[in-house]
Automatic annotation (TrEMBL), chains A, B:
Protein keywords: DNA-binding, Transcription, Transcription regulation
Protein name: TetR family transcriptional regulator
Keyword Transcription regulation tagged: yes
Transmembrane segments: none
DNA-binding region, residue intervals: 40-59
GO molecular function annotation: DNA-binding transcription factor activity; transcription cis-regulatory region binding
Sequence ranges assigned to domain HTH tetR-type in this UniProt record: 17-77
InterPro entries: Homeodomain-like_sf (IPR009057), HTH-type_TetR-like_transc_reg (IPR050109), HTH_TetR (IPR001647)
Amino acid sequence: MGSPAADAEAPADPARPDTRQRLIDVAVELFIRHSFAGTSLQMIADELGFTKAAIYHHFRTREQLLDAVVGPILDRLETAIVEAEQLRGAHARADYLLTGFAELAVQNRVVAVLAADPAVAKMLRASRKWDALIERQMALLADVDPGPAGMVKATVVLAGVAGASGPMAAALDRDELLGYLIDTGRRALGLRIPRAKH
Amino acid sequence: MGSPAADAEAPADPARPDTRQRLIDVAVELFIRHSFAGTSLQMIADELGFTKAAIYHHFRTREQLLDAVVGPILDRLETAIVEAEQLRGAHARADYLLTGFAELAVQNRVVAVLAADPAVAKMLRASRKWDALIERQMALLADVDPGPAGMVKATVVLAGVAGASGPMAAALDRDELLGYLIDTGRRALGLRIPRAKH
């Protein structure tokens, strides 16, 4: 295992530059099917017909792979948070963050399985600015109704929007799903519902 | 490992009748901390100071243990579904189910980590009437607004209420949390909000 001969037998070339992205894509699919802790580097290797050594060329641990999956999503979340924080008025800020979070969840189905996974939360908390981001995200939604009621509303909306972008919503068109998610989040938070365009 | 001598060294007696319940309680704590797939029978044995053979006396697999954790929760969910289905009017049925589901989630924090876990969903689907229950539960909430919008609302509320009963809500009094969860669910679903009692 891990010898040049074993690598040469693999059906794809693990050294190609797009191999890293293929590993990430397969990891996402397996996380969605088996959860993060239920996915091993060996399973990812098997799915691609690689040796485990070929995976090691790109990622030494499952945690590094999770970081590569989650990093770009967190970066986009941070952008949405920073932009929301610059708006005037609690309702406008909450509406902007809700829209940005729903877009992220619809575009990254893996959010549905990662957002509620304690193994993921623990890992992210140890290695990234995750806690601070979640706190700012929560504050943006909860400030519409300061106090515990607003905190619960914010938590329901974040968990609900994340979870609703998972397999149950797979039959819906993405734009349609996004519209319904934002509408439901606005109702739950007590934000104004814009009049329909038609 | 597994010899009578090894069992005798364990700090608690694995053959005592309450050992089964202690195993379930420890499994719940570890599922909440590490997710289902991130919890091994070995970890449960270590937490209790048992040998793995002592665990086998009660549960042969992690799946059997999950079944023992989830079974009573699903039984209570089924009762709430059956009772809700007997009411007249879509709003009354949805309100009853929402209340019952929120009570289950607040009383069983493990719901927050199990509800969004694909490894759990896969196992339950293979061994129980889980799919049929989820479908009936969804229908009770979604019938308030038939069509895809109602389906999305129902999914957001179920995922949101489940997720909001997790660690983020640990600081709140249970009755207070329950009240806020039901209130938020009603707003999201478009149900009538009863006037406050005070």
